[in-house]
Amino acid sequence: MPFRLLIPVGLLCTLLPLHHGAPGPDGTAPDPAHYRERVKAMFYHAYDSYLENAFPYDELRPLTCDGHDTWGSFSLTLIDALDTLLILGNVSEFQRVVEVLQDNVDFDIDVNASVFETNIRVVGGLLSAHLLSKKAGVNVEAGWPCSGPLLRMAEEAARKLLPAFQTPTGMPYGTVNLLHGVNPGETPVTCTAGIGTFIVEFATLSSLTGDPVFEDVARAALMRLWESRSDIGLVGNHIDVLTGKWVAQDAGIGAGVDSYFEYLVKGAILLQDKNLMAMFLEYNKAIRNYTRFDDWYLWVQMYKGTVSMPVFQSLEAYWPGLQSLVGDIDNAMRTFLNYYTVWKQFGGLPEFYNIPQGYTVEKREGYPLRPELIESAMYLYRATGDPTLLELGRDAVESIEKISKVECGFATIKDLRDHKLDNRMESFFLAETVKYLYLLFDPTNFIHNNGSTFDAVITPYGECILGAGGYIFNTEAHPIDPAALHCCQRLKEEQWEVEDLMREFYSLKRNRSRFQKKTVSSGTWEPQAGPGTFSSPKNQDRAREKKPVKQKIPLLSCPSQPFTSKLALLGQVFLDST
User: Fold this and answer.
1) Which amino acids are annotated catalytic?
2) Where does the record place the region Disordered (predicted)?
3) Triad 311, 314, 318: Cα angle to 5°
């Protein structure tokens, strides 16, 4: 018998009236400028409260006005909020925090840290801030964006995570000790998202540092998950990284799985990787076939496709935004509107919502100020301009301020039914929730650049274009400039060509003193043997005996070259005397 959703009539009735902040009688949409300033005030109320009461701890406890470490003792809220400062236009505070982080954050500590959370919040936050440093007026060092203190910090943090990937499957453990590596008794069971959410940060890191190990381990983990899907094309929730056997076989788009799908799409866009996109599109077919009912997405058994949990989880609200990135706007809007009805029912999204019953699930009634629905609204508004999406932004500002605001920041809502609060303000509130709200109401923000403006930067590898737009947000809303991945690398063939060229010229320089005039009188120029190559008749004969090699485009004909290559005249490269 097919599963059908039955929405109670009473729920439909409660969804009709809009609560506070609705458009006026003339039907006007929310004023973006007004709500932009409201969002900015929200940010500073939370941010200042953290600095005054919680720094250097990871997060603020807003009800007791103090701080606590949650994910590893990194001053996490400061790292997570750094790029938001620039998006709000505060360059002076951005510059100050960069100095503070360099002086205070240490990853060489005896702490058990979440591999997933450290990557998306710390590595992602530092990489984003590094790439935005020049725009923020930071006096960047020579060689930026291929070098810099925040990049070195991101690399150090990521290297602390690498021991987690040393498993028979290549899929990482969920927790690693930053000083000692993986603890001997560590559980091998990791959620799917904890395995497949590294390609954005790690590929960026490999591109900027030149060390392929980060991208390699991220790709290996992605591929092993792909190979572990069921015959009907679904993945489960938790897997044993030692054996590759699924431990939790619930399949869906929400908690424990969500950012795996997200990173297939964003990794495909960031890296222009058709294989990653093809993987997502295959998953998308299975998700539509087995988990979608009336534009809701349920949880099903990964091998059979039978419904296991007819619930909507608040973390699933990222899905319409992801659909918009692959151009599926109509389906995205229909699903978004389903989720928005839940928001209007409670003034927030409960962690779990029973779809047939139209109400919260016991012990899952809370709303920790998550960003996912606002994130989807931001993406869809950029795609459609539909004013309904601004109404969600308005409702979010009004609800969060009315229910969650306290003297020291904004508190997690423990229960949306009676608005009881919990003593925690997650760092993602400043990294994601406030950021996406602000970008929803700020259509001219530099993040939305359509390529009409850009910066040209000279790197050790030639000229590079940055800041032209197309930013890819990691799953913690840290924007990565995709153009930066092309600033610090060149083709291996070109690199080998340069190395051979330099060896040739240094060899020529050493031999010159032996046969200066004699060699010049008896030798000939051989431009076909390579730029700047000079050889004697004997060497010419030896060259003719060599096996022909595939012709390459001469490096020195490239319009963008290293400094020494630009000093080329008649095939000779003039090097310094050292």
Assistant:
1) 117, 258, 351, 372
2) 519-553
3) 115
